[in-house]
């Protein structure tokens, strides 16, 4: 019975309906009018869309079963090893850095806009480093491994990536004066929308959303981010506002004539949980072990993926440069 109860709790936890069930069982339906009540109705949206997207895949005979299988295993693994680490890091960073903020924001609409722009800056830093520093790429590569895009990809993360990401984003926001309550609201919005932008073509074929594609980051932009095509690789690091991608020159729109190729450039067995989850760490460890001298060993940790001590580099920056040089000829 305990096993069945545990499985049931995991199912309703995945569906995000725990709070909804508690309110329904209490009989106090007015609770749905409160802030927590509204959030309880939003939490289940993404998990339910994942299920609907999978069903549509079966209908269209494009179920992407390999992607769903591995991402489900990643979700289960992370539930056991990394459940509370990210929350602990957010709390720690707030307590550590808030006394050093030069000023504090308040709960107004204009400070909310300021706070969200600051949050996106912190997100850009974390995400950019996740692609440009190989040690951090080892944490992020699991998320880029799937060779198809669907909502289950939002669950494909190495368990240490959340704490690493939230440490950077929280630190940036708190030092910039964002009050903790506003930060937590932004984290909720960002997490919900950040899951939605992984929606696959089985659910939404053209995800550019018309004129919205020019003023915000759409699922189309994020599909580009997950691509390994030379034109698309290492672009669109933002999550909702594409301000910082435009500022730093990493903005790229989807081109109808260039079909997106998902996945990483390393040869990988994307149907194998161990290769998807630990493959990049194994590859880095092998390069560090074989590299001559301490300096080269350290450089493999901090240089971009594709850097090689022999000079035969295959970094994303060089891949893009070669692509544009061939176009100009």
UniProtKB/TrEMBL annotation:
<dbReference type="Pfam" id="PF04116">
    <property type="entry name" value="FA_hydroxylase"/>
</dbReference>
<keyword id="KW-0560">Oxidoreductase</keyword>
<feature type="domain" description="Fatty acid hydroxylase">
    <location>
        <begin position="113"/>
        <end position="250"/>
    </location>
</feature>
<protein>
    <submittedName>
        <fullName>Sterol desaturase family protein</fullName>
    </submittedName>
</protein>
<dbReference type="InterPro" id="IPR006694">
    <property type="entry name" value="Fatty_acid_hydroxylase"/>
</dbReference>
<dbReference type="GO" id="GO:0016020">
    <property type="term" value="C:membrane"/>
</dbReference>
<dbReference type="GO" id="GO:0012505">
    <property type="term" value="C:endomembrane system"/>
</dbReference>
<keyword id="KW-1133">Transmembrane helix</keyword>
<keyword id="KW-0443">Lipid metabolism</keyword>
<feature type="transmembrane region" description="Helical">
    <location>
        <begin position="109"/>
        <end position="129"/>
    </location>
</feature>
<dbReference type="GO" id="GO:0005506">
    <property type="term" value="F:iron ion binding"/>
</dbReference>
<dbReference type="GO" id="GO:0006643">
    <property type="term" value="P:membrane lipid metabolic process"/>
</dbReference>
<dbReference type="GO" id="GO:0050479">
    <property type="term" value="F:glyceryl-ether monooxygenase activity"/>
</dbReference>
<feature type="transmembrane region" description="Helical">
    <location>
        <begin position="41"/>
        <end position="60"/>
    </location>
</feature>
<feature type="transmembrane region" description="Helical">
    <location>
        <begin position="72"/>
        <end position="97"/>
    </location>
</feature>
<dbReference type="GO" id="GO:0008610">
    <property type="term" value="P:lipid biosynthetic process"/>
</dbReference>
<keyword id="KW-0812">Transmembrane</keyword>
<keyword id="KW-0472">Membrane</keyword>
<dbReference type="InterPro" id="IPR051689">
    <property type="entry name" value="Sterol_desaturase/TMEM195"/>
</dbReference>
């Amino acid at each position: 019975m305990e096993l069945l109860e545990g499985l049931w709790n995991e199912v309703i936890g995945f569906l995000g309906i725990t709070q909804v069930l508690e309110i329904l069982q209490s009989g106090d339906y007015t609770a749905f009018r409160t802030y927590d009540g509204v959030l309880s109705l939003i939490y289940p949206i993404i998990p339910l869309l994942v299920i609907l997207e999978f069903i549509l895949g079966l209908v269209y005979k494009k179920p992407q079963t390999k992607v769903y299988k591995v991402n489900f295993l990643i979700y289960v693994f992370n539930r056991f090893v990394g459940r509370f680490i990210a929350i602990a890091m957010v709390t720690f960073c707030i307590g550590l850095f808030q006394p050093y903020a030069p000023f504090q924001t308040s709960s107004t609409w204009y400070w909310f806009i300021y706070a969200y722009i600051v949050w996106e800056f912190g997100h850009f830093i974390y995400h950019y480093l996740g692609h440009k520093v190989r040690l951090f790429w080892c944490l992020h590569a699991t998320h880029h491994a799937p060779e198809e895009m669907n909502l289950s990809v939002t669950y494909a993360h190495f368990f240490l990536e959340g704490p690493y990401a939230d440490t950077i984003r929280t630190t940036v926001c708190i030092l910039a004066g964002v009050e903790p309550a506003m930060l937590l609201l932004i984290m909720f919005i960002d997490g919900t929308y950040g899951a939605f932008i992984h929606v696959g073509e089985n659910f939404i074929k053209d995800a550019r959303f018309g004129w919205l594609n020019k003023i915000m980051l759409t699922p189309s932009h994020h599909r580009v981010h997950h691509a390994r095509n030379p034109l698309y690789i290492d672009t669109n690091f933002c999550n909702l506002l594409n301000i910082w991608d435009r500022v730093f020159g990493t903005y790229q729109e989807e081109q109808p004539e260039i079909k997106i190729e998902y996945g990483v450039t390393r040869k990988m067995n994307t149907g194998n949980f161990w290769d998807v989850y630990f493959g990049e760490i194994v590859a880095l460890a092998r390069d560090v072990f074989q590299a001559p001298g301490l300096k080269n060993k350290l450089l493999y940790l901090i240089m971009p993926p594709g850097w090689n001590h022999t000079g035969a580099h295959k970094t994303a920056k060089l891949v893009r440069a070669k692509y544009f040089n061939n176009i100009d000829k």
